[in-house]
Amino acid sequence: MSTTMSTALVTGITIAIAIYGSLHLLLHATQDAREPPPVPTSIPFISSMIGLSKKKSKYYTELRDKHNLPIYTIRLPGARLYVVNSISLIPSVQRQYKVFAFPPLEAKLAMSVCGSSKTANDILNTNSNGDEGFWGYSITHYKRIHAPLSPGPGLDAMNRVMAQKVAASLDRLKTSKVVKLFDFIRHEITLATTDSVYGPQNPFQDPAIIDAFWKFQLGIMILLMELFPSILARESLEAREFMAKRFLQYFKEGGHNKGSALIKARYDHSVEHKVPVEDIARFEVGGAIGILTNTSPASFWLVYHLYSNSVVLEDCRQELAHVISDETTTTEDGEEVKVRTIDMSQVKASCPVMLSTLQEVLRLHTIGISTRLVMEDHMLDNKFLLKKGGTVMIPGPVQHTSTSAWGPDVEEFNHRRFLPKEKRHNPIAFRGFGGGTTLCPGRHFASTEILAFTAMLILRFEIAPVDGKWKHLTTYKAGLWEVTPVPDDDIEVNISPRAGVDTNVRWRILVTDSDKAMPLSAEDVESTKL
């Protein structure tokens, strides 16, 4: 080895050691002893960044298992993440919703994802955390959309449109058909959902808009990180612009006036805060993320677990058989038609196994992380200092895979786990819809849609893999922003009418008026006690 090469090697090693030592010094110099302990890493700041990039949500469960801390700090370049493991700390975080705030974060994310103008961004950022009172776009937005999504007339109307679309679509499946299961479900759910929200002028009735949305979705993580999106997410940006133009046309033509109470509330809220109509259209591109990205994969995983396990399928079919009714009606042409009705109110009230199966699917498959910004220094539970500017994270998978919360069979799919007569779990440990002020406002609409679609499917059809075997499906490609990940690979199946089920029967999904909420979250469980 030449002297020059030896010198270069020594110099390189010296620089590496110096950088390594400097990072350790920086970590200890900037970490308060009262803060949650930082997780040990081989290279401060860098190792955690690599771990999150590679392992995503699994990184949090690995750190929990390795260190067993109630709360800890992950230090990233320019950022502090306070990750909550202990279920006892979650209510403390959720109660302090002004100190640990979501609206300012939501405003920032909306700006990054939607590409809104400076005028709209200023409106989003004005009093975003309500420090000057309960006014301003961001702080009042959740309350404005909560009413049409809560049990009541607005939600019932959306559910009825959804039910009609689902029933009509499945009526067209008269003979056996080979499909890719996820693509099939995503298509059905997308049309039913968007018709129920946007009304007869639904932009998603154009297949080009559907294609654009899924292209847009692929680049969301890059948009959130603002990581050279014009280079790394060019197709997503083009898709976003295409969708924004179509939504602008939709609003200018008054399409929202014929839509649901939800789209009217979103539009009116923006108008009242003087958001330009061009930005209302851009915000709706972001709004489509909320109504589409979780319902399709959740429906897929429910169908997957039902048909891949004959015991689960039979249990749910037997339960549903008790809530269907038959009647004969006469058409305008004088033809007698047999109508079979599924009453969704009865499904929600009298099919606990079906509901438990859905909740178990969400426990096993959702990977959402409740995230909040620390607005001021705060001693959490009088024990842990959380510094202003940090980010509090409550990873759903940490709670969903907790042996102390769910028992030794936590890794297994147990479709009866959520039955009232089974061993009671702490409802806070179920994070399928988030919790606190970030609790998903659309959970009742989404759950009703998933249950209606799946109930209609399992009562009428058999589904079997073309190759004869249900394969294990992975979700390694899921993004950090996703709540319910899609499978890495689709599965080709044959859908055929069930033996003994009359294909000439006309099926109907009945949605009656209801002001009762399904017990889907800790907050729902608590409200049913009142």
Automatic annotation (TrEMBL):
Q: Is Transmembrane among the key words of this record?
A: yes
Residues bound to heme are C440
Give the UniProt keywords, A-Z: Heme, Iron, Membrane, Metal-binding, Monooxygenase, Oxidoreductase, Transmembrane, Transmembrane helix
The answer to whether keyword Metal-binding applies is yes
Task: State the Gene3D superfamilies in the record.
Answer: Cytochrome P450
Q: Which residues cross the membrane?
A: 7-27
Q: Which cofactor does it need?
A: heme
Segment forming the signal sequence:
none
For this protein, the record's CDD domains field holds: CYP7_CYP8-like
- A molecular function (GO) term: monooxygenase activity
PANTHER family in alphabetical order: P450, PUTATIVE (EUROFUNG)-RELATED (PTHR47582:SF1)
**Which family is it part of?**
Belongs to the cytochrome P450 family.
Q: What name does UniProt use for this protein? A: Cytochrome P450
What is the protein's species of origin? Zopfia rhizophila CBS 207.26
